[in-house]
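Justification of computing resources. Each target in the renewal requires a structure prediction run like the one illustrated here; the chain below, 278 residues long, is used simply to show the kind of job we budget for.
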Amino acid sequence: MTGSEAPPSFRLAYVPGVTPDKWVRIWNERLPEVPLALTQVPAADAAGVLLGGDADAGLVRLPVDRTALSAIPLYTETTVVLIPRDHLVTAAEEVTVGDLADEVVLHPLDDVLDWERPPGRPALERPATTADAVELVAAGIGVLLVPLSLARLHHRKDLTYRTVTDAPESSVALSWPEDAHTDRVEDFIGIVRGRTVNSTRGRQPEPARSKDGRAEATASARRKPAAGKTGGRTGGAAGGRTGGKQTGSARRGTGGGHRGASGGKGKGGGRGGRPRQR
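Resulting structure tokens:
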């Protein structure tokens, strides 16, 4: 899909725990004429939403299918264990997976951590969702390992969390279909990567126009020196190198070559510009 086929609005999907507010605010400041529509989707459904054309891009959790989706990793989250406030684990600032070996560790069906084998003792059943697992933690049934953003999303006064130093981590990325890299997607890429509003990376810049509507010269053309001034540096050096076999008038040079040839400060001009004594 080309940039000219970009839809009039931009549809952004995002998974639980991701907070796109800052990027949405910048979008609205830079592109007020293009509405941005937000849709929260379960992490497991994000790829299907993008490939099905229900969103132009998404803030998703890795991994994704790189044969169908492009992805730009944005950040990696710390993993924490969610526990009741009176749990023994709260005595430490951080723990390891081994410290949870005797705990019942809940493993919801929508878990976003890539475990080879979850730690601790398994529960009798797997909760359907992270939200269900949080309720079980509050009831004293077990503990739950999640990315920090999900612990904050499901904050409760009777629960707290501690960092787990050696647990798998979850990374968040901006993703979109391989065959749908539109100008709108490129605009959002620029925002999440911190490009300035004047950056033209990934897009062809439009020429600036004067008040009467005519296109102005580009910045590079405006900086191009006049023909008579090109010898300021190059002429001096060239004159200095060749001046050794010239007459005295050639030593002084003309225009821009005067400085390098006669001043003796050019790299090759000082010595080469002096005529030989016979």
